[in-house]
Amino acid sequence: MNTNANQNQPGTLTINKVSRRFGGVIAANGLDFTIPKGEFLAVVGPNGAGKSTLLQMISGIIRPSEGEILLGDRRIDRLRPEAINALGISRTFQTSRVFPMLTIRDSIMVGTQVGLIGGGRAPRKYGPVTELISALLRLPAYQARVAASEKRVEDVMAMFGDRLLPRRNEQAFSLSYANRRRLEIARALVQDPDILLLDEPAAGMNPTETDELTEVLADLRRRRPDMTIVMVEHKLQVVRQLAERCIVMAMGTAIVDARPEAALEDPRVIEAYLGTRRTAAAFGKVNADD
Ligand SMILES: Nc1ncnc2c1ncn2[C@@H]1O[C@H](COP(=O)(O)OP(=O)(O)OP(=O)(O)O)[C@@H](O)[C@H]1O
């Protein structure tokens, strides 16, 4: 059992001896660590290391084959993804999942909808039936909640400077790849999560876009220092700039757990990475264009 002193503290995520097999493949192998509330943790490692599998297990999309995942003292690895989301854990996906025909504004609004008529995280004044009637009749309580959601959507779009806000009424299919990624992060943020799981947020972004995203996440950190962020990311400069702690995975195992500057210099990490040209380039060991 994981012996970290933070374990079972409110808001702490505990990954307790977690493994996940897919047939003969061991995607996660005895992962055992805690993530204290408010920590910015980066998870890095070569392709196929098990990073996305870890995020999928925390968000309830897949279940561990062994071990357990706790939020505070509550076991969450048997809950459905919606139930985990309602506990304040939001995530983005490795590949963008936008609703192409919805406008940007409405796509982000979708993230708040569970809060409008039951479900969601906001405390409920009335029961679900009253909430539903209130929504159907557009009673003042419902309208006030819609107005609050709309304000929140605008605030979240504003976090991305002029990338999303001026395009709020455009349909998502017209967005650039980078903007789709921003939209997806916005949709997670609009839920005001306590724990944000980001799966390769800077993937496919050029250097300028990557710098911009890094600044957005640094800004988020300043605004919500209590929000735990778990970020899987291949771009190691993003990890160096943002993360307080870095877990390096290789073949399903956490091989190093340290501050980013120490973790990314560790010889075991460089060795694990050198098998792939793209990630070796991130260490400056080969030219990215080779
Ligand atoms: N649904 C699945 N079915 C079968 N095998 C899977 C499944 N999901 C993941 N795997 C396998 O588990 C291993 C870990 O995959 P995972 O996607 O977690 O790696 P990763 O570190 O996120 O890789 P990448 O950086 O390429 O996204 C890989 O060998 C992968 O092929």
UniProtKB/TrEMBL annotation:
Q: Which Pfam families match?
A: ABC_tran
Q: Molecular function (GO) terms listed? A: ATP binding; ATP hydrolysis activity; L-isoleucine transmembrane transporter activity; L-phenylalanine transmembrane transporter activity; L-valine transmembrane transporter activity
The alphabetized list of GO BP terms reads: D-alanine transmembrane transport; L-alanine transport; L-isoleucine import across plasma membrane; L-valine import across plasma membrane
Q: Which UniProt keywords apply?
A: ATP-binding, Nucleotide-binding, Transport
User: What cellular component terms from Gene Ontology apply here?
Assistant: plasma membrane
Q: Does Methyltransferase show up as a keyword for this record?
A: no
ABC transporter domain mapped to chain residues: 13-276
Family annotation (SUPFAM superfamilies): P-loop containing nucleoside triphosphate hydrolases
**Protein name as annotated:** Branched-chain amino acid transport system ATP-binding protein
In its UniProt entry, the species of origin is given as: Aquamicrobium lusatiense
